[in-house]
Give the backbone structure.
Amino acid sequence: MIEFRSVTKQFPDGTVAVENFSFAMPAHKATVLVGSSGCGKTTILRMINRMVEPTSGQILIDGVDVATRNKVELRRSIGYVLQAAGLLPHRRVIDNIATVPLLKGVPKAQAREAALDLLDKVGLDRSLARRYPAQLSGGQQQRVGVARALASDPNILLMDEPFGAVDPIVRADLQIELNRLQRELGKTIVFVTHDIDEAFTLADQVVIFRRGGVIAQAGTPAEILANPADQFVETFIGADKGRRTLHLQSRPGDRAILVVDGDGRPAGVLADQAGSQARNDSAS
């Protein structure tokens, strides 16, 4: 679990990006932080691996304050995927993926073999292993970026608008691929986006922010769609324009009820009457 306790971040110019932020992100689930530019979501994500240091407060991973950990070791233990993939342009795909394992002392042959397995896992052909990043499409580069983030088998995967620079068709494919990987691997994912549709597609838990890292609403996609907390959330998700009108749809042979929005897109699944809580459906 990742826990923020009364975290504030004020930059040297006086800008307060995050103020008194407290929140827990459950293990083995995808938490998506969503909001407009300047709301503090990327700052919150980057404080987890100490790319940004908080001005005050604590961030704990499984009860351990990240401030007590060596920065380099902490970052190598956490997967990190950027919008532009962040691949090393002078290194081949296979060596980009193997970067962190090699730094941690894994033998080169073993690291490269594991890199090939990761190409399979993210849906890329092994023939791409000898290519350089410039020889790949944008979508392929992002898949390599995900593979590299997974190479050290981290428990936590941080993703900072990783699909924002690719076209909508590729973006949808990458979202499907990430959902598949999450079902297989069960990582603790913290994902930042400004796109509410992407948030609803990927998240077990969505956190919608106002400026200053203030939470407007947190919950499953189905919970937020069915019960927006206020006018701000209604406007942000488009409910005030009628784009998010929900209705329920039963599925043959299944006691669960599918929640469908006004565009006909699955938004979640309501548990059957026997009892568990609403859960997010990864269908898109």
Observations:
- Residues 271-284 have pLDDT under 50 and may be disordered.
- Residues 2-240 form a domain with the Rossmann fold fold (CATH 3.40.50.300).
- The longest strand covers residues 16-25.
- The chain has one domain: 2-240.
